[in-house]
Amino acid sequence: MQEFLNGFWAFAGHYWWLIFPLIGVAGGIARSWERASKQRHERRMETLRLKGEIKAAELAARGQATPRVSPRAVAAQQAQSSKELLERLFAEHDAITSRWLDYELDVAKMIAFPAMSDGRQPLTAAFLRAKKTADALRPGSADAKVTEQQVSEYLDAVGSYAVAFEVAEKDARRLRDSTFTDAERKRLERAQHMLKVAVDQSATAAERQTAYRRVREELDGLIDLSDAAVENLEKKVALQLEPGHAPEAAPAQDPIAQADPIAQATHAPQADPLPQPDPIPQPDPIPVRDPIPVRDPLAKTDPERHAAPLRNPEH
């Protein structure tokens, strides 16, 4: 015994600093347990209240309580109490399921907190079992005819479902990507970066499609995307560009003008002509009198000369 105590105090002397993280972990577990205990206590009190109302209604129906109430009124009161309790349980059940679907349908959250989608994690597996039990015990509607035992079982199942989700969510946020290797963490970082491009409406459709394929390639073998998550991501990627950001279409060109360079020059848009200066005003022309007749040098002036041909001196 003395050796055990000596060894313990020697260990405590070397590793005394471990007390601080252990206190933090113990405090977190204690707070979670306290909240869970409070919720269980509230549900137990609600169950006891419901049982008391049902017992009072039964006693009133047997004539052992005053004032006397008819059986029909007792049945209506019992049904109303069960309906109110079931409506509150349905609301809590749906709220937890909605929080869980945020991790299942949002690929960004699946990359940031992969443990929430990994059934191999013990706490996540416990949460999924609690969800399956709560879904199985859930009545069809608040107006369904259920027994007291069925209501009590569903009440406990919803409580376990809520506690299991809280514990699994905290563990997933604590772990993040610590369960992956360095190479796998780099792939997750690349997938997260490409995911931002894939859902960016300012990017072109081709860029979004390429980024979407890269995201699927990087996550292949690391995170198992559900069909609903893939469909949700594809809807975001398929968004069209806003009308204000659509590129302007180029004006159509005549194919003949494209083939013929001369036609291209002919059909080319002409530049606006430069402004011409105002013309200088010219003086008015001086009026000219009748022109002096000019004699045509080729005109026939001597008819006798042209009438008789010249003699040949040889004759």
Task: Describe the structure in your own words.
It contains 12 helices and no strands. Among the domains are: 19-178; 183-240. Residues 240-269 and 303-308 have low confidence and may be disordered. The chain is an all-alpha fold. The radius of gyration is 49 Å and the shape is flat. It has helices at 2-14, 19-62, 71-105, 107-112, 122-137, 148-175, 182-198, 205-219, 227-237, 255-259, 261-267, 303-307.
Beta content? under 5%
Radius of gyration: 49 Å
- Helical content stands at 55-70%
DSSP, total strands: 0
Secondary structural class: mainly alpha
Largest sheet: none
Order of helices and strands: HHHHHHHHHHHH
Q: Can you tell me the residue ranges where pLDDT is under 50 for at least 5 consecutive residues?
A: 240-269, 303-308
Alpha carbon gap, first and last residue: 181 Å
Offer a quick outline of the entry.
With 315 residues, the protein is an all-alpha fold. The chain has helices at residues 2-14, 19-62, 71-105, 107-112, 122-137, 148-175, 182-198, 205-219, 227-237, 255-259, 261-267, 303-307. Among the domains are: 19-178; 183-240.
Write the layout of secondary structure elements.
Elements: H1 2-14, H2 19-62, H3 71-105, H4 107-112, H5 122-137, H6 148-175, H7 182-198, H8 205-219, H9 227-237, H10 255-259, H11 261-267, H12 303-307
Helix pairs in contact: 2-3, 2-6, 3-6, 5-6, 7-8
